[in-house]
Amino acid sequence: EEDQRQLDKQRVQDAEDYAILKIKLETEIQTLEQDLEEMRATYQLNSEKLEYNYRVLQERDQENTTTIQQQKRKIARLQDVLSGLKSKYGKEDKRFKAENQELSDDFKRLTEQFKELQGKFHHFEQADTRRYRDLWNMHEQEITELMRKVLQADKVIHEQQLGLNWYPPSEQIFQDGSEAEQAAIVAAPTDQDEGPLSHAQMDNEQIKRMLELLCDEANFLVEAKVQ
pTM score > 0.85 for this model? Predict the structure, then answer.
């Protein structure tokens, strides 16, 4: 009996331990199942995120590949343009250098020609000036002689035909420009000078009228070659 009681007691104790262990294990199983569901949900969420990120990366990679291809085509086109511009620049630079050299040579040649013409101009200018002065002096002498003859005729008309006093002009009219100017300064009359030159200067209008009359009416007094 005692063994039976011990056996029953042990059986009851084992049943209680079993029940407690069963409850504990069931609780742990439920907890593990909950953790498993949470892990599955987290895995699913991470899988979706990873799939989304993968698709985004694929799209970006495709876009980047397209952009790289476009940039490569653009670089190739720009390289062609650059090659064309370099070739054009080389041709233009060569042409401009040739034109610059040609213009420089023309400038030097024209400068030399200008200096040569300038020297010839000065030479001919001096020669023409000498020739002009020679002709001037020659004609001045002829005109001076004619003026003296006209003044002599004017004196005869005044004294013999008109009965007027005749005052000779200044000898300055027979001098050249520079000598006449110097003589006029030296021989300028003062306020008290009442000589024949002063009377002649005051009577210019009358002399002018007489000379006009002489030119109109006294052609016979002038030599034929002068007329």
Answer: no
